[in-house]
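Entry 14. Structure prediction run on the chain below.
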Amino acid sequence: MQFDSLSYVVFFVFVVLIYSVISNWSMRKNLLLFSSYIFYSAWNPFFLPLLLFSTTLDYSLARWMNGREGVFRKIGMAVIVVANLLILFYFKYLVFFMEIVSDILAPAGLDIQPQKFDIILPLGISFYTFHSLSYCIDVYRKKFTPTANWRDYALYVSFFPQLVAGPITRWTYMRDQIESRRTINYNSFFIGLCLLVFGLFEKIVLADSLFAPAANELFALKQPNTAEAWMAMLVFSGQIFCDFAGYSTCAIGSAMMLGFQLPANFRNPYAAVGFSEFWQRWHISLSSWLRDYLYIPLGGNREGRWKTYRNLVLTMLIGGLWHGAGWTFVAWGALHGCYLIAERFVKYIYWFTGFKKNFWMSLLAWCGTLLAVCYAWIWFRADSAEQALYLTARLIEFGSLVEQTIQLQWAHRVAGGGFLLLVIVHLIFRKNNLAGHINHMHPVALVFLLSILIICIILSPGDGNAFIYFQF
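Output returned:
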């Protein structure tokens, strides 16, 4: 069951109807928790016990740890971290680890073929693991006392709009919303509905119908030329944004229709001027999680320039591995770590020389940021490092670029034009957010726009691909 399916529409309508009839807040929370488990079980009911086990374990250990001090408190936190990471390691990284061990031992003459494990990755495991870890770490840091209500904690971890692909929320953000009664009002319900429609448009029309077919065809080419390599990079950059931002927008809209507020996860990232700003606009909930629970504990920027660079690279490498168990994801994280280091180095030169930025320098910085981010997406999408390196080599061969571009398939050129329009939209609305625009639009204009979007969704020929981030 995913947001762009008829089953979700039916499911969500039933949840909203029953939710609106029930007046008791405790019963409403029971309904939401039960609905969340139904939503999760629709993918694979055999993984629901794992979610329940992980939830109960972290809830219990956080409560136990809260009453301890000193070494016992540290032991409790260590058990939580190890237990969560072992579960994540088994399902997500065991096969990758065995392959690495095999490659290391091969030069020594030990030809060990790793056993093939048919391990199915539980949906959303990376997301709900980070939910639980942030809660337990904050309890350890004494930012708050753990809740005594298992149901409230379970609802925080498994609230269905954000269960399988975020946004990654903090207990400090959700606690009051869960413990205090939520009400459905016309304005928030309508804005939530608009966000749901916008998100479905991004996913179904743009990601699945415009960008995905072109990206799949171009990345499937054995020996793409320069124009095809550039187009592959650009259209996947459009697909990954529209796919994931579309999911996040649907999640935020669904939650808002139930009276809940989820944090924004995207703010026009392709308008970013610099890589730090990009990560303040792209997958904001993950980047802030990595900053607060990994980068800062490693030392952040408090221990000198070189250790800051080390911390940036380590954080982004782990961020890359979080996305997937493969060397291409490691390379993607390493690239962004290097980007952040290069940005800090350039800023240091500006400061040292007293150079003042102007419009043209900002324009150059934006272009460089966009191209570097798009290039990194090649490693994110490529099936292998060899494919990513081949595409990289093609990108810098400009001999017949104009002729090759003219010979591109019409659908590929249209998808490339769609990415250009997407970037322009990001630049125009750089300082704005979608919910704010919806709230200030004239009702007639908004209804007209929604009608067009719904018609496009209905007529879309998209194949209904699963959201890309479901694999993480």
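Residues 6-181 form one domain.
Filed with the rest of this week's runs.
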